[in-house]
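Structure representation:
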Amino acid sequence: MVGKRIRELRKQRGMTLRELSDELRIPFTTLGNYERNDRQPSIETLQAIADHFSVTIDYLSSGSKNKRQLNLSDEAFQQLMQAEFPELTKEEFELSRKFNNLTELLKKNQNEREMKIISEIIEFLFQMKINSSRELFSEVDSTPLTKNEYASIYIKKKHHMDGSLNELFEIYYKELK
């Protein structure tokens, strides 16, 4: 779907593949691979293409009929976010934007297993961040955990996350055409 949409939008503007690749600063051959669906763009590249054509990522990736997006550049959106959340850094804004884009893609795909895995991964990251900044206690005798005990717990959870990432890869691999 992505490749078809890119080609349609490019032709609507009367652009050659070479012209679009120059404007997007994407190698000509890579862009051709996207159009033929031989390769899928990263979320950042997908966002750049969507921004270039003033369409939504959803329009490019899922065939949504909602072509138009709010015409705010990332800078304008960041300024609005800064006014509302002055403590938000550029990196935090970028992370938020990527997370929102991922959420939109997940909503359209509606693969419950995929959503569950991603939710587990986010929860794992959240717990690791929270736990790294406070003292943890043993569930057995309520004594503080040593760094080694904490590392052991982390390694067990990491092993589970590795399995989840592998399962997520399998889901995406099956979706390849």
Q: What stands out?
A: Confidence is low (pLDDT under 50) at residues 67-72.
